[in-house]
Design a protein that fits this description.
Blueprint: E1 16-17, E2 24-25, H1 28-40, H2 48-59, H3 63-76, E3 80-82, E4 85-101, H4 111-117, E5 122-133, E6 136-147, E7 150-155, H5 160-172, H6 186-195, H7 203-216, H8 220-233
Antiparallel strand pairs: 1-2, 3-4, 4-5, 5-6, 6-7
Helix pairs in contact: 1-3, 5-6, 5-7
């Protein structure tokens, strides 16, 4: 007997047929699920050419439906698809309180600039942002350094996501190459991902994941909470 669903596609209920009666239509949230399955289902290399036709046949959809599913995903999904991985942002935590820091100034500052900078307040704060990769929760810890209207972050090296950050950063920043031996290798990071039930990543995927993380560790809600802490500290 032939397996009618060898890829374990999710059973979804169509809402009807399109205007030309050539394909099923689905609710927007189900279109998102169809779109995600294109990338997240692991397919053996010798069956890659069979996968997309099987997906379209199972849901009785056409290429236009797949194009529309991508548009709907971009519009309503709370996550991103990076190659064969789904990543989304979780909540944040401000761990502990603000720690006031002192800043050393260069003697070459002009008088006006030095006088202005002497009034600059600086603080550090330990933070955590949660991310989900293929629905697996991974914390990301970093120290936030706040100075005037600016800030910078320093990532820790404990969780696999933090190790990915340092691995990627060392590849692109020459001043970190000497200390790159202290970072986990691609093989080691992939072994840790596999142990969490997350499929392996190549260099390009890892670069994109880290870029996504850096762009999302601080959001508007976190900025509002930080501003309240700063106001209370003054």
């Amino acid at each position: 007997m032939t397996d009618s669903n060898p890829y374990n596609f999710l059973p979804l209920q169509p809402t009807g047929r399109n205007e030309t009666n050539t394909a099923n239509t689905y609710a927007p949230e189900d279109m998102v699920k169809i779109y995600e399955q294109q990338f997240l289902i692991e397919v053996p290399e010798d069956r890659l050419t069979e996968f997309l036709p099987a997906l379209k046949a199972f849901y009785d959809i056409d290429n236009h439906t797949l194009d529309v599913s991508a548009v709907i995903f971009d519009a309503i999904a709370d996550a991103s698809i990076i190659y064969n991985h789904k990543i989304k942002v979780g909540g944040y935590q401000l761990l502990g309180g603000l720690i006031e820091e002192s800043i050393e100034y260069d003697e070459d500052h002009a008088e006006g600039e030095e006088a202005q900078n002497e009034e600059l307040q600086a603080y550090t704060l330990e933070c955590q942002r949660t991310f989900f990769i293929n629905e697996v929760e991974i914390p990301y810890h970093f120290n936030l350094f706040i100075y005037g209207d600016g800030y910078s972050t320093l990532t820790k090296k404990d969780t696999v996501l933090e190790k990915m950050y340092w691995f990627v950063r060392a590849r692109f920043e020459e001043n970190l190459l000497e200390s790159s031996e202290d970072n986990d290798s691609l093989t080691s990071i992939n072994a840790q991902l596999t142990s969490l039930g997350i499929r392996e990543m190549d260099l390009t995927t890892m670069d994109e994941i880290v870029s996504y993380v850096e762009n999302n560790i601080i959001d508007d809600a976190m900025v509002e909470a930080l501003n309240k802490l700063l106001d209370d500290a003054e």
